[in-house]
Design goal:
Layout lengths: L1 H17 L5 H42 L3 E4 L7 H8 L5 E16 L2 E10 L1 H4 L9 E4 L10 E5 H7 L6 E12 L2 E15 L4 H4 L2 E5 H7 L7 E6 L5 H11 L5 E4 H4 L1 H39 L1 H9 L4 H45 L20 H27 L3 H4 L4
Parallel strand pairs: 3-8, 5-7
Antiparallel strand pairs: 1-9, 1-10, 2-3, 2-6, 2-9, 4-7, 5-8, 6-7
Helix pairs in contact: 1-12, 2-10, 2-12, 2-13, 10-12, 10-13, 12-13
Length: 416
């Protein structure tokens, strides 16, 4: 019997959705509710996918030049060769390379610019970073021991006004004692290559030299640490803890989540805030559903009274109007999901086409390092957006449905 009632309520609820109403204004609001829900869902899916794309792009660029994890010692790593051999036994480690970290000033004529100086072994560096792939002029292999060559980021080269083959002076904070007094350590380097990562932090503030040259210039006996690359950046914290537990207590193992935690936490917070803001679009559409059902209840009072007279319970009337509202919401959600998924998957071709029609770029490469809109759609985000939208639409049906359930047959039919 319960199944028959359920089928009967569903049949009437669906009939009310597709029925041609006497009041065309109700039909207009119903259609606007569907459009509103669809636009909200599509906007949510598209924007979240774009933000995922930016997060992935930034993560790839930062970790392509930084490192998944580093092993450091305040006094330098004396036995770095031995440590690298031990690390190679970990199946999750794809590469390990020693490095020297220092700070200095680069000068050319009267132009001075501070920079992070990284001493590397070119053959080993390619195992942990993508710098060799980001070289736009010259070659990383030209960093040879004793030659005092240097590789700079494109922005730094532009600021100093350099060209390939030019000389640039590196001033180290360490000092030399001379008969004339204390003098800073100064060495002229030859620019042999230029890289461009697309991140201001690296392109305008990073200089690469050979590790042997950096040890001589900065008066260090051993490299600062070892840079590690894992086969999965999400596993880096676990792998770091595992390596730290097997190494000496004097060594520190720091993964990328510790070095860049504030930046990626800010990205996650921004993504959450955007989700909440765009959900308000769906909420506004849900209010339209309330308006639709409230007017539908007023329009169908005589129908409700007849159903109650024939034996329909207030609970059945409640279900009829909940079904009507939920169906409106589901139609909007389905259209929105289809539109949102299509835009998220094709945004990298849609935006250039739109830019060509309008004649300008949304993200000018002169201003932004990421000049294209990246998209990275996750199906779990699509499911989350659909569920949140469905809950909002369901909540919107409760008040009108309760109002319909409270209608008394005698009152409704008094003036019929």
């Amino acid at each position: 019997m319960q199944i028959m009632i359920s089928q009967y309520e569903t049949m009437i609820g669906l009939r009310y959705v597709r029925a041609r109403r006497r009041n065309h204004f109700i039909s207009f609001i119903s259609m606007s509710s569907i459009i509103g829900v669809a636009l909200g869902v599509a906007a949510l899916i598209t924007v979240i996918s774009v933000m995922n794309g930016f997060e992935k792009e930034l993560k790839d660029r930062i970790l392509g030049m930084a490192s998944h994890a580093v092993i450091e010692d305040s006094n330098g790593l004396k036995n770095w060769n031995t440590i690298i051999e031990e690390i190679k036994n970990y199946s999750d480690i794809e590469g390990a390379a020693p490095y020297v970290h220092a700070e200095g000033m680069l000068t050319k004529d009267k132009i001075v610019n501070g920079a992070i100086i990284r001493g590397i072994l070119p053959d080993e560096e390619t195992k942990v970073a993508v710098v060799a792939e980001k070289i736009i002029k010259g070659s990383l292999t030209e960093l040879e021991s004793g030659k005092f060559n240097i590789v700079l980021g494109s922005e730094l080269v532009r600021k100093l006004g350099l060209q390939i083959g030019d000389k640039v002076t590196l001033v180290a904070p360490q000092a030399n004692l001379t008969p004339a007094g204390i003098m800073p350590r100064i060495k002229r380097f030859k620019l042999v290559a230029i890289f461009e990562v697309g991140m201001h932090e690296f392109d305008s503030g990073l200089a690469l030299i050979h590790m042997d040259d950096s040890l001589k210039l900065f008066k260090k006996k051993n490299p600062t640490g070892i840079r590690l690359k894992t086969n999965n950046i999400l596993k880096a914290p676990r792998i770091s803890r595992e390596i730290a537990s097997n190494l000496s207590n004097n060594y520190r193992v720091i993964d990328w989540t510790q070095r860049h935690s504030n930046f990626f936490r800010a990205l996650k917070t921004e993504k959450t805030v955007m989700f909440v803001i765009l959900t308000l679009i769906v909420a506004v559409a849900a209010f339209n559903i309330i308006s639709t059902l409230v007017m539908a209840v007023s329009d169908k009072q005589s129908d409700i009274a007849v159903l109650r007279t024939l034996g329909a319970s207030p609970r059945s009337i409640l279900k009829i109007f909940i079904i009507q509202g939920v169906v409106i919401g589901i139609i909007g959600i389905m259209i929105g999901v289809l539109g949102g998924v299509w835009m998220a998957l094709n945004i990298e071709t849609l935006v250039p086409a739109l830019e060509k029609i309008l004649g300008f770029k949304f993200l000018s490469p002169d201003v932004y390092y990421i000049s294209d809109l990246p998209s990275d759609m996750h199906w779990n985000d699509v499911i989350l957006v659909s569920l949140v939208s469905f809950v909002l639409c369901l909540l919107a049906t409760i008040y009108p449905a309760l109002r319909a359930a409270k209608i008394l047959p005698a009152e409704a039919l008094r003036y019929e």
